[in-house]
Amino acid sequence: MNLKSKHNIYVRAILAWLLFIPIIFMNAAFRELVYKPFTGELLAHQVSTITGSVAFFLLAYFLLRHYMYNTPNNKLLLIGLMWVALTIVFEFGLGIFVTGASWNKMLNDYNIGQGRIWIFFLVIILITPFIIKHFVPAKNKRLAA
Question: pTM of the entire structure?
Answer without folding.
Answer: 0.88
